[in-house]
Design goal:
The chain is mostly helical. It is built from six helices and no strands. The chain starts with a helix and ends in a 5-residue tail after the last helix.
Amino acid sequence: MAGARYKEVIRIAQRRPGRRGTGAEPRSVQAWLGRMARACEHATMPTYPVFAAAALAEIAGCFAFWAWLRLDKSPWWLAPGMLSLAVFADLLTLAKSEAAGRAYSVYGGIYIVAAIIWLWGFEGHRPDRWDIAGGVVCLLGSALILFAPRGA
């Protein structure tokens, strides 16, 4: 829903200066919408940092369930886990993409690398050369999907 509002602001703001779209908005409102749209464009985070933060939130949330079910931790681990999963879902919506499936496929590569980092940093298992090679392949695949030239 917020994405639709953002697109509407961008659409209105991108009209030529001095032209009154439907005639419903005065020039001062149109100028204000233009400034707001430009601010929104600059405020959105680049894709990779958004996905890295989302991956950390998703892994932390899933690990809370893992700890409860597999490591016999308290059910209280679930509360921050669910909050972390909600943050993950919210972060995914910040990525710039015209299609959810494409955003999710790019995110998949980032998630795999984040899981390898989690393996080392939080679980104490040093990644071997195959973990690292697999992570590099995933990052290359995600970059290919993200930066590929798309026809209009």
